[in-house]
């Protein structure tokens, strides 16, 4: 299946049209001067055809730029474990770049791992201090790598589970009790799945590689590569999300669940955001793209709240607090952003941090989970579109 990015949500299509892989070799000798201020955040900012990977210290008012950042090709984003930061190239490449964090939290580039041409590595799942699974979206495989040596140790081939071709287009995944649950996107064009494809997940026993496919027709495709998240809550239940049909209409949208102790979809659970009235707005939304699970059943995201046609730069995504246990949605008192500026969300101490492109400024806005206070302008400004964010205590 062709696995170029989704036209309606992938910033790359709108900015780049078609783009070749940008070489990262120029970064090998790039050594940003360490900042004596402890760096608690690692970011990716998109500017035209480039992705800039850099850091900033904390949530005191400040301005960031990309002058000391590492430059890569468009499409890179972040995964971290301990002091290891991995940057897969995603839709437009075949490499994973490795950084370690220095004594002040500054990034130090230490290596690059190259997969097959247009492997499209992403969705990295760490299973220890020195191993991680990497979804190869363009190849229909899951690679097990040693994060210390940057060598491939094993591989899981999902091609037998593809529809109409040899690639089921693996998306996001989680690991629970020795099994990996991988969303299969089953793309048949740059931005659509094979007609009739619903929620489809491969359940893989990581010891035996025995694989079972579970399907649910109540939603459309779940776990879209780079445009969705899967997570496990404190009860041990797994959640996948479907944005519906092509991000245009709220049709077959919502959260599905796999209960603890089961490898089947929970037929008693479906949470349609598009059919739930948003507290503070008084109407329903349509869908979300990326999200952050903060614990105790709470998800933070930016929800498309207008019923107008999709527009890449329209400020129609509202930051919200979603309770997946009680099926409620609450508006946060934060300005609206566009679809591009709805990807970078994380938690730092008592704050949920949103990287957004708003009329009030581009950068990092905060919601204080203790006091409810929300910033109306970016606390930390950014150059470019905030697209990925990781926080370290």
Automatic annotation (TrEMBL):
SUPFAM superfamilies, alphabetized: Tricorn protease N-terminal domain
UniProt-recorded name of the protein: Lipoprotein
Species the sequence originates in: Segatella maculosa OT 289
Lineage: Bacteria, Pseudomonadati, Bacteroidota, Bacteroidia, Bacteroidales
């Amino acid at each position: 299946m062709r696995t170029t990015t989704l036209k309606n949500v992938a910033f790359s299509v709108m900015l780049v049209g078609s783009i070749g892989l940008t070489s990262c070799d120029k970064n090998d000798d790039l050594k940003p001067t360490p900042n004596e201020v402890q760096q608690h955040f690692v970011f990716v900012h998109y500017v035209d055809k480039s992705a800039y990977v850099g850091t900033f210290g904390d949530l005191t008012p400040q301005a960031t730029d990309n002058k000391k950042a590492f430059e890569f090709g468009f499409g890179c984003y972040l995964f971290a474990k301990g002091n290891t930061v991995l940057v897969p190239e995603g839709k437009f490449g075949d490499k994973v770049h490795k950084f370690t964090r220095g004594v002040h939290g500054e990034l130090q580039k230490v290596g690059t791992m190259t997969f097959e041409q247009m492997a499209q590595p992403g969705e990295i799942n760490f299973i220890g201090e020195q191993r991680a699974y990497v979804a190869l979206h363009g190849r229909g495989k899951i690679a097990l790598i040693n994060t210390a040596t940057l060598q491939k140790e094993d591989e899981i081939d999902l091609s037998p589970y593809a529809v109409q071709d040899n690639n089921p287009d693996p998306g996001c995944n989680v690991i629970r009790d020795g099994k990996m649950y991988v969303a299969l996107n089953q793309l048949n064009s740059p931005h659509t799945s094979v007609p009739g494809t619903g929620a489809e997940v491969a359940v893989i026993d990581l010891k035996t590689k025995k694989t079972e496919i579970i399907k649910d027709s109540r939603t459309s495709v779940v776990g879209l590569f780079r445009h969705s998240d899967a997570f496990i809550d404190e009860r041990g239940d797994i959640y996948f999300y479907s944005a519906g049909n092509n991000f245009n209409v709220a049709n077959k949208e919502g959260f599905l669940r796999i209960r603890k102790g089961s490898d089947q979809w929970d037929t008693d659970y479906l949470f349609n955001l598009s059919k739930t009235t948003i507290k503070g707005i008084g109407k329903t939304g349509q869908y979300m793209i990326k999200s952050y699970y903060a614990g105790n059943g709470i998800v933070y995201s930016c929800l498309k709240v207008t019923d107008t046609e999709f527009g890449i730069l329209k400020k129609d995504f509202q930051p919200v607090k979603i309770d997946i246990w009680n099926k409620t949605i609450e508006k946060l008192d934060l300005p609206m952003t566009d679809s591009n500026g709805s990807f970078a969300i994380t938690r730092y101490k008592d704050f949920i941090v949103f990287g957004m492109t708003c009329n009030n400024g581009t950068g990092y806005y905060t919601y204080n989970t203790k006091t409810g206070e929300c910033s109306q302008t970016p606390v930390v400004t950014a150059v470019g579109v905030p697209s990925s964010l990781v926080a370290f205590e």
